[in-house]
Specification:
This protein is mostly helical and about 220 residues long. The chain has helices at about 20-40, 65-70, 75-80, 85-120, 130-135, 140-170, 175-220; strands at about 1-5, 10-15, 50, 60. It is built from 7 helices and 4 strands, in the order E-E-H-E-E-H-H-H-H-H-H. The mean pLDDT is about 85.
């Protein structure tokens, strides 16, 4: 039960089983997460980049959005970006817009789960002090992950847009081509660091959030 003070009537408004209401909100946001996640996944079949085969012919290889947003290998990241066609670039931009629909549901679910378990533990006569402290002090982790995901997508979209401009530049001689390749390499290196920082913070806070939620669930079930 949760009590909200009504200042106009000077009477408390009591909501019984408020944790169940929050749980229903979790279920609704989870449905939204699954639905928008399926929509986001539908774009993955168009994620292709050009590669050289053993016969020295141009082939195409699939990649995922994670390959693009967790660029641990600089050489693979550069090969992936330079091998993309304009069509693939356009598909990725659409996927990033779909990800913008997915994020509020995904991170909203985590935030609501923090609230739900906090309500469950505070209603107990002798709650676990460690998990209660974690729920109270780390509830904002999903919000940090959400913000970092937005930064990550913005960096990715900006990189693809600027790189596409450089790809379409016409080079008439060796010096121009060399300068163009240098500009591409510098652009990729600069944005790779930005994407890695945003992505690293996103995954760190998201994994910690899930870990705390699973720990709270296990304690309740024991």
């Amino acid at each position: 039960m949760i009590t909200i003070l009504n200042y106009h009537l000077d009477l408390p408004v009591c909501i019984h089983n408020f944790d169940q209401l929050v749980l229903w909100l979790v279920i609704l946001t989870s449905i939204g997460t699954i639905t928008t996640g399926a929509y986001l996944a539908s774009f993955s079949k168009g994620f292709l980049y050009a590669v050289k085969t053993y016969e020295h012919k141009n082939g195409f290889k699939r990649f995922s959005l994670t390959d693009l947003q967790l660029p641990f290998s600089k050489s693979h990241f550069k090969k992936l970006l330079l091998g993309m066609s304009s069509k693939t670039n356009s598909i990725i931009h659409k996927a990033l817009k779909a990800d913008a629909l997915f994020m509020p549901f995904a991170y909203g679910s985590l935030l609501l789960l923090f609230f739900y378990f906090w309500l469950r533990f505070t209603s107990q006569p002798d709650p676990n002090p460690v998990i209660l402290s974690m729920l109270l002090n780390c509830w904002y982790f999903p919000l940090i992950a959400y913000v970092m995901d937005i930064f990550e997508n913005n960096f990715t979209a900006s990189l693809l847009k600027k790189l596409e401009i450089l790809k379409q530049e016409k080079t008439t001689n060796y010096e121009d081509r060399k300068l163009n390749e240098s500009d591409k390499s510098q652009l990729i290196s600069r944005f790779r660091i930005k994407i890695l920082i945003a992505s690293g913070l996103k995954w760190l806070t998201a994994i910690l959030s899930i870990g705390i939620i699973l720990t709270a669930l296990c304690i309740l079930l024991v």
